[in-house]
From TrEMBL:
One of its GO terms (molecular function) is heme binding. The keyword Magnesium does not apply. It comes from Agromyces flavus. The lineage of its organism: Bacteria, Bacillati, Actinomycetota, Actinomycetes, Micrococcales. Keywords: Cell inner membrane, Cell membrane, Electron transport, Heme, Iron, Membrane, Metal-binding, Transmembrane, Transmembrane helix, Transport, Tricarboxylic acid cycle. One of its GO terms (cellular component) is plasma membrane. SUPFAM superfamilies: Fumarate reductase respiratory complex transmembrane subunits. The chain crosses the membrane at residues 26-46, 66-85, 106-129. This is Succinate dehydrogenase hydrophobic membrane anchor subunit.
Length: 147
């Protein structure tokens, strides 16, 4: 006589050792998603509602905002959370639609490279942004810069 186990019976597997990266990726997506909602709505409120709307957003607006370390960190958090959140989502899509092997490794490598490059460049832009660089011709500087 053949016995069929109940569908709710947990599968018998060998105990796993080490860190469960898929579980932590799942947790990351939920936590970063909640933080991103708060950060992005704060960003939109300050940039669009609290001020004069879209017409006020220009080079000078960004320069004034990034003069404050608070807004630099705020925008840095949005950049890092959004890029890593998106990269983790793309990693999941790559896992779902490709078979383990060379193609999957190349796609994940390209994704990792693109993510790291964008994080480094974005971070450099936020922290090295200088609207009034020394030695620039006065006619090329914004009106709020003293030549």
């Amino acid at each position: 006589m053949t016995v069929i186990e109940s569908p709710r019976t947990p599968a018998r597997r060998a105990p796993r050792r080490g860190v469960n990266l898929e579980k932590w990726g799942w947790i990351w997506m939920r936590a970063s998603g909640v933080l991103l909602v708060v950060l992005i709505f704060g960003h939109l409120y300050v940039n669009l509602v609290d001020g004069e709307g879209v017409k006020a957003i220009d080079f000078g607006f960004v320069a004034g905002k990034w003069a404050s370390p608070f807004w630099q960190v705020w925008d840095l958090l949005i950049l890092w959370l959004a890029l890593i959140h998106g990269a983790n989502g793309m990693r999941t899509i790559i896992n779902d639609y490709t078979s383990p092997g060379a193609v999957q490794k190349v796609l994940k490598g390209a994704l990792l490279l693109a993510t790291v490059v964008l994080l480094v460049l974005g971070t450099l832009v936020i922290f090295t942004f200088d609207p009034c660089p020394a030695g620039s011709p006065a006619e090329l500087l914004p009106s709020f810069c003293t030549a």
